[in-house]
Amino acid sequence: MSKILTRRRFITGVSAAALSAATAGTGAYLARRYGLVPPDSGGLFGIETSMTYAAHRLLLYGQPLAREFGREQISKNFPAINTILPEDDAYRSDIPSGFRKWRLAVDGLVMRPSEFSLEDLQRFPSHTQITQHVCEQGWSAIAEWTGVRLSSVLNAVGLQPQAKYIFFTCIDGWWDSIDMADAWHSQTLLTYGMNGRDLPIPHGAPVRLRVERQIGYKNLKYLSTITVTDTAADWGKGQGSEGAENGYSWYAGI
Amino acid sequence: MADSAPNRRHTLLVRITHWIHTAGFLALVVSGAAILLAHPRLYWGESGGYPSPALVELPLPLNLDQSGWGRSLHFLAAWVCVFNGTLYVLSGIASRHFKNNLLPAKRPLLNHDLTAYNALQRLTYLTVIFFLFPLMIFTGLAMSPAVTSVLPILVDFFGGYQSSRTVHFFAAGLLILFLVVHVVMVYRAGFRIRMRAMITGRGAANAEAL
Fold it and tell me: Do the Cβ atoms of A45 and B49 come within 8 Å?
């Protein structure tokens, strides 16, 4: 083994390392510049979820639709997990009336903070889609969902230009958030109907969020509040979701 | 010196990518098992779950609490393996490593010549590199509702989301089988000398020790 080859190898190695570092540095800079960094980007696993989130946001730049299915593919059994009946007293006493007292508050960085009853939401143009719910556990089920596009509600209240996240809180205490790409997406619904009937209680009545390009746990049940923010820092540990604090990444396009 | 061509078994790049892949693959297996325990049932077609009948009920304990870190580690390791594997394949093409050392040549199916791979080894490595690992990547991506919104053909090709998951599982099984056979072969061929060949790049020079 000659010295020249050793030197050449050394130079090649150093160049490769420098190129990798420069690529990673440039990538990180561009990701921050274009808002491609998720709120839970810290730590070793933050590297993974940041890369996945940035890659998906670039790949999904044209806002493609999640796959839709035929009526005949609707699942006969659609499992309901986690909360299947909230313990909240006001919620339970509202069940017999068909949730007439329930209100969806929309606040934060909006022009007109508002409250919507179930009837208010049903007066918006309704949208129906047959999609697959993919649970992070591994099971999946297809259902027909009916509701109002989140974008319709956001347009009705008017967003302030610095809006970056849409936070959701739920009657069972759960909370999570999505970015504006998913918020404006035409399949992102506030659903009040499932398989042609009122949304059943185990599936999140009166209103459940559908974010079809992410897996199950982003599809929050029992919605109570929508808050528009320009930062995730003020919620919990600042990681964007309660799930992220328990090890389930904020972005779940997978 | 020992570095003259016939004695050099593995290039530096092959050795580095080999061990990065080893770490990445082991992390994928462990985290994949952690994810699987949340629902150790496999289906065919688009959808499936309790209480529908399963294609395969795996005799594994149900554990719902390991899939958070499981998924994070799985995708971290998947990114590492995809980058590492791409580097390996591109350099293998550029350096003619695949052409010279792995493409089938006129060699006996089995031989004990340690300076070149026999036909069975070549076929196995080619299957692992160019069929099983790409299959793992494609069936993995087929399980992403985001990726399949852009490329629905990924999941349609495998016959649905649950089919993709099932193929992902069995392809992983074949890769684990490959790993076991690979390690057994290395052991039988002389564990220390084979390990040294893959760590330092030298080995066949000491063939008399085998």
Answer: no
d(CA B179, CA A140): 31
Distance CA A26, CA A24 (A): 6
Give mean pLDDT, residues B134-148.
98
d(CA A164, CA B193): 57
Residues of B in contact with A248 (CB under 8 A): 67-68, 71
Beta carbons of B160 and B46 less than 8 angstroms apart: yes
For A111, other C-beta atoms within 10 Å of its C-beta total 10
User: How would you label B79-118 residue by residue, b for 16+ Cβ within 10 Å and e otherwise?
Assistant: bbbeebbeebbeebeeeebbeebbeeeeeeeeeeebeebb
Helix axis angle for B161-188 and B133-142, nearest 10°, is 150
- Stretch (H or E) spanning A152: helix A150-157
The pLDDT of residue B5 is above 50 = no
**Minimum Cα–Cα distance from B34: chain A residue:** A137
Give the Å distances, CA to CA, from B117 to B107, B143, B188, B195: 9, 36, 15, 16
Task: Tell me the CATH number for domain B5-42+64-205.
Answer: 1.20.950.20
Please tell me the predicted confidence (pLDDT) of residue B103.
87
Strands (E), chain B: 41-42, 56-57
Rounded Cα–Cα distance for residues B204 and A138 (Å): 47
| Among the partner residues B64, B69, B149, nearest to A247 by beta-carbon distance | B69
Q: Which of A44, A66, A141 sits opposite B76 (nearest CB)?
A: A44
| A64 phi/psi in degrees, rounded to 5 | -65, 160
Rounded to whole angstroms, how far apart are CA atoms A51 and A45? 10
Cβ of B46 and A1 within 8 Å? Answer: no
For residue B158, give the nearest of B138, B178, B177 by alpha carbon. B138
pTM of this structure: 0.92
The beta-carbon neighbor of B149 closest among A76, A213, A248 is A213
Q: What is the complex's ipTM, to 2 decimals?
A: 0.92
- Which DSSP state fits B53? P
Q: Which residues of B155-167 are buried (b: 16+ CB within 10 A; e: fewer)?
A: beebebbbbbbbb
Q: Minimal Cα distance from B12: which residue of A? A: A9
Contact of A118 with chain B, judged by CB distance below 8 Å, is answered with: no
Which pLDDT tens digit goes with each residue over A162-211?
Answer: 999 999 999 999 999 999 999 999 999 999 999 999 999 999 999 999 99
Fold of A65-245: Sulfite Oxidase; Chain A, domain 2 (3.90.420)
The answer to whether residue A60 neighbours chain B at the CB level (below 8 Å) is yes
